[in-house]
Amino acid sequence: MTTSHYIAGRWVDGQGSDCISVNDPALGQPFAELMAASAEQVDQAVAAARAALPAWKCTSASERAAYLRGFAEQLGQRREALVALQMRNNGKPRHEAEIDLDDAIATFGYYAELAEQLPGQNRDVPLAAPGFTARTRLEPVGVVGLIVPWNFPLVTSAWKLAPALAAGCTVVLKPSEVTPLCELAYGQIADTLGLPAGVLNIVNGKAETGAALSNHNGLDKLSFTGSNNVGSQVMRSAAAQCRPVTLELGGKSAILVFDDCDVDAAVQWIVAGICWNAGQMCSATSRLLVQDGIADALLPRLQAALENLRVGSPLSEEADMGPLTSQAQWLKVAGYFATAREEGLQCLIGGKVLDRGGWFVSPTLYADVPEGSRLWNEEIFGPVLCARRFASEQQAIAEANDSRFGLVATVCTTDLARAERVADALEVGHVWINSVQAVFVETSWGGTKGSGIGRELGPWGLSGYQSVKHVTRCLG
Ligand code: NAD
């Protein structure tokens, strides 16, 4: 049994009723287990964060920046163990696990720099009215709850934890029950750095533990990343208490390929957009919109590229794509394969689970999918791509925007004026032009419509944990 909760600067065993199995998806077998935190332990974590807040929010920005740099450095020192854990528990091939770790390191480094710039943002406000002065003060929101999913455990947590600590908030982090071990590294690092007790608390558990945190009346804000179904429950809890909430939810993003595009380059961007992390990305570009003039050349090349993708154990250096991370996700994707058969979709490649012991599926491409199809409209969270053809730029934009989600999109064209025009017209939070999904800490992350509320990363990520105060003085 793994000791798996970090509360008030101490490691404690779970006292909840749920036993959590931690699985190796390549084998479909558990390799560790732990007991979930009880509701009382969530109380203790929130109380510890509350007690730590007055001192932590008064630390200087440079002190907080030093801790954040410490997190970045210590993540680097734990590199091999964390890469190995993500490979084993998430099923990520080594190169993907390494990129995740580098992203988390870059995030802590970036918010260390932003923390150092904070004092300069507390500044005088020029007023038109005579006889008054005013100044802005950016204060921490307070005690924040952070609930995260399993698909990029180190990264999603870093995107919340680093700006929250930089702003001067204290936190209670609840990782996903599917990947409960990765984020324990943040507790171990807090210990190593001597972060004051209670500034960072980590409670592991399933829905019950998450609900105990999101319903807790001791929080000043909750930041959630996960499914729309749970996000909606989290938002209801926040509404009940009139409390701010940030939501990073699902997606059904489009990749638009125009006639003038280089076919090989387009294939590379399409495959990366749907097969990275075995398609388990909120930002997966799972709807391919391809222009009539290039479709007949592109689809066979895409089919061949997906066929040649090597699916295998993340421990094998040969593997381009690993298994799905959980059995639940594997069954969900298998369910969509069955729906596709019922709907009579034209499957060019894949469409089946692989009989290899673990939770593997084949990269899948459906062509000429009707716009009413469930597979065209619902988030699948696997390497399952649906394609439709379009005639005009206007039609492509309209079809891309015809979704209840609005997370990201990719535009592929050599006509850069058109690329920029289309990017501006897409109702999403982030657009890539002629690129794989490169994510930079300086740019924002988050979506429109059903993909969420608020933004992470960049200065917007920091402001999500800040409260704006003005002090106005009458000179008379
Ligand atoms: P999920 O919603 O099932 O779980 C997310 C977290 O919420 C987990 O920690 C879980 O234990 C917790 N939880 C479950 N029930 C809860 C409840 N009733 N109250 C409070 N917390 C509860 O999502 P998942 O399956 O872990 O992740 C996949 C989803 O996350 C996908 O929809 C994906 O698009 C989304 N996601 C979004 C982003 C983004 O940035 N927009 C990033 C990654 C994943």
UniProtKB/TrEMBL annotation:
UniProt keywords, alphabetically: Oxidoreductase
PANTHER family, alphabetized: ALDEHYDE DEHYDROGENASE, ALDEHYDE DEHYDROGENASE-RELATED
InterPro entries, per the entry: Ald_DH/histidinol_DH, Ald_DH_C, Ald_DH_CS_GLU, Ald_DH_N, Aldehyde_DH_dom
Phylogenetic classification of the source organism: Bacteria, Pseudomonadati, Pseudomonadota, Gammaproteobacteria, Pseudomonadales
PROSITE patterns (UniProt xref): ALDEHYDE_DEHYDR_GLU
Species for this entry: Pseudomonas juntendi
Pfam families named among the record's database cross-references: Aldedh (PF00171)
CDD domains per record: ALDH_F10_BADH (cd07110)
Family affiliation: Belongs to the aldehyde dehydrogenase family.
The protein's name: Aldehyde dehydrogenase family protein
Active-site feature positions: E248
